[in-house]
Design a protein that fits this description.
- By secondary structure, the protein is an alpha+beta fold.
- Helix content is about 25%, strand content about 20%.
- The protein has three helices and four strands.
- The chain has a four-stranded antiparallel beta sheet with strand order 1-2-3-4, covered by helices on one side.
């Protein structure tokens, strides 16, 4: 099974309709048609990143393959094997330090491409 994200839908719908993004504009998502048709069954080396704010804690996470790394706001590094622990109950950060280091680097590299503070929106 391959992971996808909602941003992939825009790229997929655009490709299905024969649309091209404007020059210099890069879509955040990826065209899923080659995977859906079996032309290209897998996407290698794809990571997913996100940020979330809970109370006063800013948390960040990265998912790569079966692994999910979570920086819970500075108190502890969390690493989960989502193939064997979908409920994220067993923290494997001490038993797989090389994976923690790799995912932390991926997250840090992604952060350099993102705005420091995500935009906020008021709902009325």
């Amino acid at each position: 099974a391959q992971m996808a994200i909602t941003m992939d839908l825009s790229a997929t719908f655009a490709a299905a309709g024969g649309a091209e993004p404007p020059a210099g504009y890069v879509l955040d998502g990826m065209n899923l048609i080659p995977m859906l048709t079996g032309e290209k069954p897998e996407v290698a080396d794809r990571s997913f990143f996100w940020r979330i704010q809970r109370s006063n804690r800013k948390m960040r996470a990265v998912r790569h393959g079966k692994w999910k790394y979570l920086d819970d706001g500075g108190t502890m590094d969390l690493l989960f094997d989502l193939e064997n622990d979908i409920g994220e109950r067993q923290n494997l950060n001490f038993t797989h330090p090389e994976i923690v280091a790799d995912l932390k680097k991926r997250l840090a590299d992604w952060e350099t491409e993102m705005e420091r503070e995500p935009k906020t929106f008021r709902v009325r």
